[in-house]
Amino acid sequence: MDEAVDQKMSFLDHLGELRKRIVWSVVAILVGLLIALSFAERLMKFVRRPFEAAIPGAKLVFLTPTEGFWVYMKVALIAGVVLAIPVVLYQVWAFVAPGLHTHEKRFAVPFVFVGSLFFLIGATFAQLVVIPFAMRFLVSFPGADLTPMISVGSYVDFVLKFTLAFGAIFELPVAITLASRMGLVTPQFLAKNRKYAVLLTFVVAAILTPTPDIFNQSLMAGPMILLYELGIISARIFGRRPKPAPAPVPEVAS
pTM higher than 0.70 for the full model? Predict the structure, then answer.
């Protein structure tokens, strides 16, 4: 009976800790939102660059009176998420830290720094490589008989979806390393199941990419495969070492 109560309290403690970390993450994102609102116009110009390059001289349109306002708010919110990534990653680390050894908890700063860096690299890769290629393909695919008239809301949703998706995907090596430190996976397991990971990568890329062609799918699947391999290497270097096998007990001669 006592053990059941202890397990229940332990579970409730975990829920309380999770709620605390979520609240701090939301606060950080709201602070980032307030900061990003000061640069909303510059952010919108940056977001519009792939559209303007794909359709020179064209302009985005809004279809409802409130669409333009909410688009600016949405862009500022996503920028706030990007600004708050270090705090969010620290909250993730603080939540899983109780499951780590004391000497492993010193990796908090590298985890936050590397995780934030990889997220920014992924988001930048989406903005500078993936989205421009996808936009050029999508607007040219129907041919010259159709004139694109794209609403600002649908375009911003398109851009932000892939910016966040690639930012999250580039966290794969960090997630694999953390899982390895916690003993959830091993480099040997990851390497052995590499072929299934590659297959799953192309399935995910086919679902997330907006175009059916293999080129744009490879723009997502290719980096994911490289990141998976990087995660295996990182797990080999920084992952938890297996416990040495106990020495055999010598037999006592009768």
Answer: yes
